[in-house]
Design goal:
Blueprint (H helix, E strand, L loop, with lengths): L2 H5 L5 H20 L5 H7 L10 H24 L1 H21 L3 H29 L2 H32 L3 H21 L14 H12 L2 H31 L6 H26 L1 H26 L4 H27 L6 H24 L7 H22 L8
Helix pairs in contact: 2-6, 2-7, 2-8, 4-5, 4-6, 4-10, 4-14, 5-6, 5-8, 6-14, 7-11, 7-13, 9-14, 10-13, 10-14, 10-15, 11-12, 11-13, 12-13, 12-15
Amino acid sequence: MTDTAKTRTPIGFAEFVALMAALIAMVAMSIDVILPALADIGADLAADDPNDRQLAVTMFILGMAFSQIVYGPLSDSFGRRFAVFMGLGIYIIGTALCLMAETLPVLIAGRIVQGVGAAGPRIIANAIIRDRYSGRPMARVTSLTMTVFIIVPVFAPLLGQGIIAFAPWRGIFWFLALVAFAVLFWAATRLEETLPAEKRRPFRLAPIMEALRMVLGNRLAVGCTLVMSLTFSAFLAFLGSSQQILGEAYGLGEWFPLAFSSIALVIGCASATNAMLVVRYGMQRLSTIGIVSVAIVSLAYALWSVIAGMPPLWITMFWLAVSMGSIGIVSGNLNAMAMEPLGAIAGVAAGAIGTVSSLVSAIVATFIARQYDGTALPIALGFFACSLVSLAILHWATRNRVRRVK
């Protein structure tokens, strides 16, 4: 152990939550800061279909999906810090590829690599939290970090709009590179290793497959992961089509970041409220209320659209605020519920849960978002369908008590 490590002040609760939030928020920042620039990117890189620009969002998530399962076992074998640093390094490489892109396929490739890199900090943060906490305290910490994760979109589109007001769209990727280096420095100097050497698992296929078997054999973990996938699908479908819905269909133009930020603020407030309520009311009850809320308002919005045509802007904003706010309540609870019975294999569990949720959400969200036809009706119908299936799965997952993996 070095003298620096011996004398370094242990990280406190507030800084721990802030650092975990920063690691997780790399995902939100990477997605939301580019939203105001999607039209410029599509025009500059000659996108054939206006909906192709959505791929800059959904393919980032797809890159995350296929890599998260690797980071979990790596962190279980070599430590949490190693996996975090590896992910941030890959993210910086992907950012450089985006900066050099002269065609849309190259940019999409860069976004996939960015997603592969961002998966490391995102998933390992969950494992680190599980190393230190369990039960409702874990749900509280998760909700606090998710609050920051979801508050980032309040400022990210405004920041992106500001950047492209003074620089080409590539300036956004220079900004993302700066953020990645800053988080890397913070983690390198302050993040403590939470997985002692004696608790690490060998990086061999057999132990990894056994841990995966335990994850997939746990009804609560599987069910909550699938529900989390579907609720995030709704969130991601909105992200992918938000600039087209608000910026183009409603003609907000340069006011789009402000409208998007107001919705993101509602999500952040909802997640923060969940952190205060979850200890008293429990994760399952709040999750059910949130999913039912999305189903009700989405069905009402779809019926309005079919009967009376495209709703006025304030109706659309209300629908989005209630739906996204409800998802803000649900997200932290579902993740904590999925991780709760898997503390002994937190790294693999976090990777498996993250892989499934990201892969399913990327596929479902891409399908929903690409149905965009100039109105938000297809998105509302997608929200409603995801909510109904989520309720059925949540009931199946929680109807019997599930044995915890010791």
